[in-house]
Design goal:
Radius of gyration: 14 Å
Distance between the termini: 19 Å
Oligomer: single chain
Strand order of the largest sheet: 1-4
Number of strands: 4
Amino acid sequence: MRLVVDLNKCQGYAQCAFLAPDVFAMHGEESLVYNPRAEEEQRERLARAVAACPVQAITADGLDGAKESASQSALGASDGH
């Protein structure tokens, strides 16, 4: 999953770091650092973090249909695909 944060929009509210600490972190009081290639296991937390951003600075490719994709991935893994 690919993440993009518009650092010009980001105001350092840190809601993303609170909701998905394995992906987002604050460096100092105002500087956000993040992993642009988040793991699939973080999908639900990332969806919450994207939705919680007060300035809508975060976009994520591949978050649509999170529950369906996760269940399909689990089924695919169990049958050898």
